[in-house]
Predict the structure of HIT domain-containing protein.
Amino acid sequence: MTDGPRPDETGLEDAADFAAVPDAFQRLWTPHRMAYINAGADVNRGSGCPFCAAPGKDDETGLIVHRGEHAFVLLNLFPYNSGHLLVCPYRHIGLYDEATDAEAAEIAALTQTAMRVLRETSRCDGFNIGMNQGHVAGAGVEEHLHQHVVPRWASDANFFPIIARTKALPQLLGDVRRAISEAWPA
């Protein structure tokens, strides 16, 4: 009998040690992310929507790498990896099924271009692409639709580093924005 799950050398806990019915999943607990998720909704309500505010700023200040007709692309202020981009419609909508056909088409096209540009500028090996819609799904800014385009490399340690709660980002946001913006096709 144990006192509970035991982390292995990677920090993961074996599901066989959990109470109730064990399954085949490993758990990577990241409770520190809840502070960001919970604060995000309150912060965004108090200061306005960051994705509505960004287009009103100059590209450098707003971290915008490209402006389209219905949507724009900007760097994530809290990136998981260098080059973590967000594709957002200009219109303040919360869910993908609220997007017009034109908005959805441009979000898709900008996502494809973002992938091509990131492969060129960062030599990444793959991508995580997705939308977290709604608070329950982990959306940090649930009121404004945005798609994540996260470059990945074979040498990545993991997606949510929890060792020492530190993420090593080799480039400054301004330098990454400039490189991606300059490589974006006209």
In short: Strands lie at 64-67, 71-75, 85-89, 126-130, 147-152. The two ends are 64 Å apart (CA to CA). The mean pLDDT is 81. The first helix runs from residue 32 to 47.
